[in-house]
Amino acid sequence: MACKAVRTKLFEYLDGELSEEQRSALEEHLGACAECRHLVELEKAFREIYVLPLRPDQAPAAVRERAARLLAGLAAPPRSRWVRPLGRRSAMVTAALALVLVGGVWGLFLTWTRREASASLLRLADASVEQHQKLSRGLLPFDITRTSPKEAEQWFGNKLDFNVRLPELKDENLTFLGGRIAHLRDFEVAALEYRVDQKNVTLFIMPAEQYQRLGLKAEPKFKMVNRQGYDVIVWRAHGAAYALVSEIGGRSCMVCHAPEEKLDVTLKPEAHGAR
Amino acid sequence: MDESVEFQQLALKYMDSLYNYGRVLTRNETDAEDLLQETLLRAFRGLASLDRNRNAKVWLLKIMKNAYIDRCRRKLSRPLEEELPEGQEPADHLPVNPEEILLRRLAIEEVRSAIRRLPPVWREAVELREIEGLSYAELAHVIDKPIGTVMSRLHRGRNLLRSFLQDHPDHAIEPGKVRGL
């Protein structure tokens, strides 16, 4: 083996990546060539002094902390992963009774059966839950915060190429926490985080064509599934599609409209988050 | 041991490596954290695919690389591979002699800083080999390239790193010139 061939293979030799045959040939040359031997010694010294002490930079404490919280959440035993009947959740029963009592209340037609929940809807729901968990645990920072829905609406309008209209806050128990551009599966959405009854609620607004891609039936208008213990309501209205994620079922709807508001989208379209 | 506890331990053990690789890929600390979290979620979901007899760090790094590529597709942004440097490649494959650098007695942080200045695809190869200790085959698996490509990137990255560490930190190796030997 010639000196140039040895030097060409030097990195591979010291990386332990040469075949047995190549290694033997190279070492045979080293035994006879002082200059190449010297070069190998320099390489070994370089690695010992400058390479072996290299370690990955430590992740910042805040990053580690947020990741640890995420991991702790993953470790929690999963709750039912499939769609459950509305009547099995007491909060939902309460909400449903309230809707009936006030009469003419916004009519949510929810779909509960496992059979009717399409795989595409479940995938969207899973992606929504994942983003909701990260937002509500503070693992994803807001792009905008401490602002009004109107200002947020303007901010998203400049960033996204579909219609983002945010509802006005209609209840003193409802707080707008902030928003960011998020990804649900393979498309960008506006993610809005609210606080309702001491619980976090996330409203995702996405292009209407994404809803069409789900291939869902027109009725019922509001599809609701439960994923990992979270209620996900998905619907389309006024040129956009929506996914609402919470642990409080139909109570989360107050993000978009007040409980007493009637189902009259032609008169009060702004009450449902889009015009 | 409970599977989720085992996964937590694994993730915490390789947290720094993953975060660093996230920074190499995204070149942005916020995106790196986002990518880290996405990687952890994907890895947890795909825990069944982890072969306990193989290198778990490689498995996690590969998941991160895939998540990064998917993210680039979603955002229609260019992945590292499309940002190959121009005009900085040495003309042949002889290593740059490290003697001058040894005499300079540099601090490790200076070496770390020089690695950060490497073009992205070369930095990726150098970090995964020199810092994470991956073999050529493991590196090829993570970046999804042939071993020949791995060797080429690693070689060029190492040589350019040495040129950074020599007397002229901003100097890149000129085509046709390999110094030292």
Written account of the structure:
- The complex is a heterodimer of chains A (275) and B (181).
- The radius of gyration of chain A is 29 Å and the shape is elongated.
- Chain A is of the alpha+beta class.
- Chain A folds into two domains: 3-51, no CATH class; 83-272, MucB/RseB, C-terminal domain (Phosphorylase Kinase, domain 1).
- The model of chain A is unreliable at 77-88, 103-117 and 261-275 (pLDDT under 50).
- Chain A has helices at residues 3-8, 10-14, 20-32, 34-51, 61-75, 90-102, 119-136, 149-159, 208-213, and strands at 144-145, 174-184, 187-196, 199-207, 223-227, 230-237, 240-246.
- In chain A, strands 1-2-3-4-7-6-5 form a seven-stranded antiparallel beta sheet, sandwiched between helices.
- Chain B is mainly α.
- Chain B is globular and about 50 Å long.
- Mean pLDDT of chain B is 82; it is low at 86-91 and 169-181.
- Helices cover 63% and strands 0% of the residues of chain B.
- The longest helix of chain B is centred in the middle third of the chain and has 20 residues, at 56-75.
- Chain B folds into two domains: 3-77, Rna Polymerase Sigma Factor, Chain: A (Orthogonal Bundle); 85-165, Orthogonal Bundle (Arc Repressor Mutant, subunit A), CATH 1.10.10.
- Chain B has nine helices and no strands.
- At the A-B interface, helix 1, helix 2, helix 4 and helix 5 of A face helix 1, helix 2, helix 3, helix 4 and helix 5 of B.
Q: How many helices of chain A does DSSP assign?
A: 9
Q: If interface size is counted as residues with C-beta under 8 Å from the partner's C-beta, which chains form the largest one?
A: A-B, 43 and 51 residues
Profile the largest sheet of chain B: none
Q: How many separate domains make up the residues of chain A?
A: 2
Question: If you average the pLDDT of chain A, what whole number results?
Answer: 75
State the separation between the terminal residues of chain A, measured CA to CA: 78 Å
> Would you identify the CATH architecture of the largest domain in chain B?
Orthogonal Bundle
Q: What's the CATH class of the largest domain in chain B, please?
A: Mainly Alpha
CATH class category name of the largest domain in chain A: Alpha Beta
- Helix share of residues of chain A? 25-40%
Helical fraction of chain B equals: 55-70%
